[in-house]
Automatic annotation (TrEMBL), chain A:
CDD domains in alphabetical order: TM_PBP1_LivH_like
Superkingdom of the organism of origin: Bacteria
Name of the protein this chain belongs to: Branched-chain amino acid ABC transporter permease
Transmembrane intervals: 20-43, 50-70, 76-99, 108-129, 162-181, 210-229, 249-270, 277-302
TrEMBL record, chain B:
Name of the protein described by the UniProt record: Branched-chain amino acid ABC transporter permease
Alphabetized PANTHER family for the sequence: ABC TRANSPORTER PERMEASE PROTEIN, HIGH-AFFINITY BRANCHED-CHAIN AMINO ACID TRANSPORT SYSTEM PERMEASE
InterPro entries: ABC_transp_permease, LivM-like
Transmembrane domains' residue ranges: 27-43, 49-69, 76-95, 101-123, 130-151, 184-204, 234-258, 270-295, 307-335
Organism: Camelimonas fluminis
Keywords recorded for this protein, A-Z: Cell membrane, Membrane, Transmembrane, Transmembrane helix
UniProt topology in membrane: Multi-pass membrane protein
Pfam families: BPD_transp_2 (PF02653)
Compartments reported by the entry: Cell membrane
Length: 316, 358, 281
């Protein structure tokens, strides 16, 4: 028994390094997607202090809108542009209807309001575009398809082209966001708002404008995540469960850290794949559904503030 | 006019500390109990009892349980359905192992199993708070649901992977299975829910309830006053999970008749959380009101469209229900963060001073 | 004095502070702080501070902002754990202690920014202060009639005395979140009193109050000290209040003790004058 848990998996890893590399790669790719979802959370949390539970749904909603519009006969690129418009309108609506009336409420109230938003978006998305799973329009958007096989370590590792594209797009996006945050005037305003709403208001920063910008940015990130994800499986609200995995990622990386979200995403992605592949069979498989939460939980007990969070000193 | 407390002086602390200090409230409660226990089974009819009242009571009990944890103690939980599942499966195992023992004993006993599981998953609450704790309860939710699917022993190796309520009797009459009358099932559910509600009311009105609320409102101050945080939180997890477990057992045995693991999925947890939010965090009566609203809404919507002469598909109704529930949550949080219970209090206050505005 | 008679009434044949611990005689050190240092990462909040608090006195801790006063209180009631030094309370020395343990030993406190239980009524807040004295366990609480209710009623009687003493009868059932600031501070004092402490720590009990409210609060503090015999340590910025109320004063600056003694001595100390007025180095 102990042998099966502590030694056998490592023997397997060493015995077939090509499988290990394959598992690592698969883990990294899903990690990138988790990181992209978590990134949306972090953006919103940093700028408005709202823990946006609806981020996962925004991913599905964005992808669904894109595919839904295409199915209704809109050309792919126009559909993409229109989806961006929809995400912008969503940001405006959220600011108007949810954030503005709830300003200065305790965090937990805003958190629960995003539950409401989640349900509303599920109902709305399905009402407009139907509840059936849809295929993502990858080729129409010019994204590559197919497999690259790499011969290595005495075996063959296959890499999906779309996964490589996802990794590249995600890195570009993170870099762009970093520049946006650090170098632009709006970025500075965002950081100011993140520190203190009242102080930001008092130096003439418009909270409402900032919130719209942040939610729109999170919407764009959600769309990117949605496209990548849809290309790997299909677009439906069943993805909601997968989107919840962004929570352990956040816990691992800290709620306010962009690098944390990325590293956390990769750790969760890889940890979960390796766990399922090497340890899953011992208990009957399917442990992917909860392993991520346990990894995060175990981690929390040792570092409650996350990987990149600052140590909390409680004051009274 | 009728709702006036003038002249009702309390001459002892005992009278002042009663759960219902106002006479009209006590009369109101007596009438409601009379209606629920006598009129409803006599005149309610099978459909109303088994499709409306029993589900409502089961959900109210689960919401009550979650409310003790989230509303009173301030520990957000997204694992309610998982704990309900523990109750249901524990009850199933117990009653198939020991069929001769009365089912009601096992329903209540199954609560202890889910209480124990709740305590285990409540342990991290010492170090982690708020959103972080939500992740711990999500771990419980997904892990428990995985157990219900992957451990065949839990469902006695049924091919279907579901658990089915075997026929059990009370005073020689069947209370589960196809021959159980809705009236009897309803009365059993109602009695258990009424008993547990009364106990919950005792708990929250005494020392334990105050400790829970103190931890919720200002945990540091509570600790500096000698309230030990971990035991207090764990007790909340245990009691809350006990209630959820009993609700889960009732759900499978006296309502559904059988259940698959999907019954205890994350969306069920969310549904119960919404009942608590809309009903009112930290209010017992709110749990009932919230359950009635969230469970009743789809039923009302389903019958509303035909009444308006519109023919709308079942799927569409479901989508609209999602939208309405979502919008309602946001609306409630904006207008009345304390939920239906707070509206109820406002109405009582208005009645008290009627016809004057205040 | 009106306050004296008020509390005098409150004492008549009543349960409050009846089971007082007399293991330390009046005038003897109740609490001693020896060479305590506290660091947060690289920041030294308190360095090598020693002083004592004698049974029955009003001890003031003063100093400019950021001098480490609140940190000192946090150390005393076990919320922060100092890296060095010892603290003994009633002759028992301890290095690490949980806040709930400190509470059980008879140390209670109020907070700089009111830390009441906002969702609960005045009555429930003060009743929560009685938690340590309530013994009926979980299974009695399930029932709440009989022994558990009797116990509630007994403690309710004590709480009502405190409510009378602090003159907050009218807001008994009001949720404390709705009370004005001055009353909230008073309820907080009531909650701390309900624990029947031997040592009461008050963190800026008069911050943000107007003159009248300050006078009321001073009167309550003196009454608590005189009539109930509670030892008090308080942090306060209003020098007039400090000099009037306290028997002895300890002055902190940048986490170090710069003066200790009777109010007049401290007032005359050059180090204190420099700390408050600034000095050209």
């Amino acid at each position: 028994m102990l042998y099966n848990i502590f030694i056998d998996p490592f023997v397997q890893m060493a015995g077939a390094p090509d499988l290990l590399v394959q598992a690592l790669w698969d883990g990294l790719v899903s990690g990138v997607l988790y990181a992209l979802i978590a990134l949306g959370f972090v953006l919103i949390f940093k700028a408005s202090g709202v823990f946006n539970f609806a981020q996962g749904i925004m991913v599905v909603f964005a992808a669904l809108t894109l595919v839904g519009l295409y199915e209704k006969g809109v050309p792919a690129w126009v559909a993409l542009a229109l989806t961006l418009v929809v995400m912008f309108l969503l940001a405006v609506a959220v600011e108007r209807v949810v954030l503005r009336p709830l300003v200065n409420q305790p965090d937990i109230i805003l958190f629960m309001a995003t539950f409401g938003l989640t349900y509303f978006l599920i109902g709305f998305g399905e009402l407009v575009f139907g509840g059936n799973p849809k295929a993502m329009i990858t080729e129409q958007l010019g994204l590559p398809r197919g497999v690259i096989d790499v011969e290595m370590l005495g075996g063959r590792v296959s890499l999906q082209k779309i996964d490589i594209a996802a990794a590249i797009i995600a890195s570009i996006m993170v870099a762009a966001l970093a520049v946006f945050f650090q170098k632009t005037r709006i970025g500075r305003a965002l950081r100011a708002v993140a520190d203190s709403h009242k102080a930001a208001l008092s130096v003439g920063i418009s909270l409402n404008q900032i919130w719209v910008i942040v939610w729109f940015t999170a919407g764009v990130v959600a769309l990117a995540a949605g496209i990548m994800w849809g290309a790997r499986s299909e677009v439906s609200f069943a993805l909601e469960i997968v989107a919840l995995k962004a929570l352990p990622v956040l816990v691992l990386g800290g709620f306010t850290s962009v690098p944390g979200a990325i590293v956390g995403g990769l750790i969760i992605g890889v940890g979960e794949k390796l766990g399922e592949f090497y340890w899953g069979p011992l208990v009957g498989g399917g442990i992917e559904t909860w392993l991520a939460y346990f990894i995060a939980l175990a981690f929390l007990l040792f570092r409650p503030q996350g990987l990149f969070g600052e140590k909390i000193i409680e004051r009274i | 006019m009728l709702y006036r407390e003038t002249g009702q002086f309390k001459t002892s602390y005992k009278a002042d500390m009663a759960v219902f200090p106002i006479r009209q409230d006590r009369i109101g409660l007596a009438i409601i109990l009379l209606l629920a226990f006598v009129a409803m089974p006599l005149f309610g009819g099978g459909f109303l009892l088994s499709a409306v009242m029993i589900p409502l009571l089961v959900f109210a009990l689960a919401a009550l349980g979650l409310n003790l944890l989230t509303g009173y103690t301030g520990q957000l939980s997204l694992g309610t359905a998982g704990f309900m599942g523990v109750g249901a499966y524990a009850c199933y195992k117990l009653t198939t192992f020991f069929p001769e023992v009365n089912l009601i004993v096992w329903i209540l006993a199954s609560g202890f199993f889910s209480a124990a599981v709740g305590v285990v998953f409540g342990l991290p609450s010492l170090r982690i708070k708020g959103f972080y704790l939500a992740v711990a309860t999500l771990a419980a939710q997904f892990f428990l649901q995985w157990c219900f699917i992957r451990i065949p022993w839990l469902y006695n190796n049924n091919v279907s992977g579901a658990i089915e309520a075997p026929v059990r009797t009370l005073f020689g009459m069947p209370i589960t299975g196809p021959h159980a009358t809705p009236e009897l099932r309803y009365l059993v559910v109602l009695s258990i829910v009424a008993l547990l509600t009364w106990i919950a009311s005792n708990l929250v009105h005494g020392r334990i309830g105050r400790s829970w609320m103190a931890v919720r409102d200002m945990d540091i101050a509570a600790e500096l006053m000698g309230i030990r945080l971990l035991p207090t939180k764990l007790l909340a997890f245990a009691v809350s999970s006990f209630y959820c477990g009993v609700a889960g057992a009732l759900m499978v045995f006296l309502w559904y008749g059988s259940a698959e693991p999907e019954v205890f999925s994350i969306s069920q947890s969310f549904l119960i959380l919404f009942m608590v939010i809309i009903g009112g965090l930290g209010s017992l009566i709110g749990s009932f009101l919230g359950a009635a609203l969230i469970y009743g809404l789809p039923i009302v919507l389903k019958s509303l469209f035909p009444m308006l002469g519109l023919s709308v598909g079942a799927a569409t109704v479901e989508h609209i229900t999602f939208m309405v529930v979502g919008a309602m949550i946001i609306g409630f949080l904006i207008v009345e963060p304390h939920g239906l219970a707070s509206i109820w209090r406002t109405i009582k206050q208005k009645l008290r001073v009627w016809p004057f505005p205040y | 004095m009106n306050g004296q008679t008020m509390s005098g009434q409150g004492m008549n044949g009543l349960a409050l502070f009846s089971r007082r611990d007399d293991s330390v005689a009046k005038g003897e050190p109740l609490l001693t702080v020896e060479n305590v240092s506290l660091r947060f990462g690289g920041v030294k909040a308190i360095s090598d501070v020693s002083f004592d608090i004698r049974k029955g006195e009003v001890r003031a801790i003063i100093g400019p902002n950021g001098a480490g006063k609140t940190s000192m209180l946090n150390v005393i009631n076990g919320f922060y754990h100092p890296q060095e030094g010892r603290i003994s309370f009633r002759g028992q020395t301890r290095r690490r202690m949980r806040p709930s343990h400190a509470a059980a030993q008879g140390i209670s406190r109020t907070f700089q920014n009111v830390a009441l239980f906002k969702g609960m009524s005045t009555l429930d807040n003060i009743m929560a202060g009685r938690t340590l004295h309530m013994k009926r366990g979980f299974f009695w609480q399930l029932w709440r009639h009989g022994p558990a209710l009797d116990e509630e009623i007994r403690h309710r009687r004590v709480v009502e005395e405190i409510i009378d003493f602090l003159e907050i009868e009218a807001v008994r059932k009001t949720p404390v979140g709705k009370l004005p600031y001055g009353l909230q501070k008073r309820v907080e004092l009531g909650r701390a009193l309900a624990m029947e402490p031997d040592l009461l720590l008050l963190d800026e009990p008069m911050a943000g109050m107007n003159l009248e409210e300050k006078e009321d609060m001073c009167r309550f503090i003196l009454d608590v000290n005189n009539a109930f015999g509670v030892t008090i340590a308080l942090i306060e910025h209003d020098m007039g209040v400090v000099m009037d109320l306290s028997d002895r004063v300890v002055v902190l600056e940048y986490g170090r003790k710069i003066a200790d003694g009777a109010p007049d001595e401290v007032k005359a100390s050059q180090a204190v004058i420099d700390a408050y007025l600034g000095v050209a180095h």
